[in-house]
Amino acid sequence: MSKSDKGRVATPANLLSLSRIVAVPYIFYLLLSSDDGSSTAATIVFVAAACTDFLDGLFARSTGSVSDLGRKLDPAADRILISSTIIALMISGSLPIIGVALVVARDIFMILGYKLVERRGVTMRVSYLGKTYTALFMVALVLVMAGIEPGGRAVGLWLFWACVAGSILSGISYTARSLVIIRAREASSGGT
């Protein structure tokens, strides 16, 4: 793929990332239409959307179309998919409001923090810890919304709380890394 192609928005990888965002209203509607917050249809749509998280990176690397837009769009699509789904599950009574509030607050903090450090010339990449907790969150949400009994929801809820803790830890990790980079840059620019 040519360098000019790398700047295009409509690459296969970016379209896959966008498909996760497009799936959100359907998942939301299906979950809120169910009696108990479990929905086979919502689970299928969510799993299909979650699979695009793996495929978009694969397409980007295999076609040489890794772009700055894709690096921002991929994690944003993940957060929109996860946050919207947990909010729908909270409204339906399947997830506790405290856990959901912690995840949403962490995501807002990360978005605002990213904008601040970007203004300082720092570009943060998604860490292995962040990717791991995103994948585990997706598994937890599938277990909760699929309504598999006995025990499926209980395991999903336990995993959800583990992911809440993990996402907070990954947020602390991103913040610490950003501060280290900013301080190092300030020290080097002050020393010249």
Overview of the molecule:
The protein has 192 residues and is an all-alpha fold. The protein has a single domain (3-190), classed as CDP-alcohol phosphotransferase transmembrane (TM) domain (Four Helix Bundle (Hemerythrin (Met), subunit A), Up-down Bundle), CATH 1.20.120.1760. The protein is 81% helix and 0% strand. The chain has seven helices and no strands. Helix 3 (40-63) packs antiparallel against helix 4, helix 3 runs antiparallel to helix 6 and helix 4 packs parallel to helix 6. The radius of gyration is 18 Å and the shape is globular. The model is unreliable at 1-6 (pLDDT under 50).
Brief overview:
The protein has 192 residues and is an all-alpha fold. It has helices at residues 3-6, 12-33, 40-63, 68-91, 97-119, 128-146, 152-190.
Largest sheet: none
CATH topology name, in short, is: Four Helix Bundle (Hemerythrin (Met), subunit A)
Low-confidence stretches: 1-6
Helical segment tally?
7
CATH level-4 homologous superfamily: CDP-alcohol phosphotransferase transmembrane (TM) domain
User: Strand content of the residues, in percent?
Assistant: under 5%
What is the number of independent domains? 1
Reading off the top of the CATH hierarchy, the class is best stated as Mainly Alpha
Order of helices and strands: HHHHHHH
Globally, the shape reads globular
Number of strands: 0
Query: Class by helix and strand content?
Result: mainly alpha
What is the correct CATH architecture? Up-down Bundle
Q: Using the CA coordinates, give the radius of gyration.
A: 18 Å
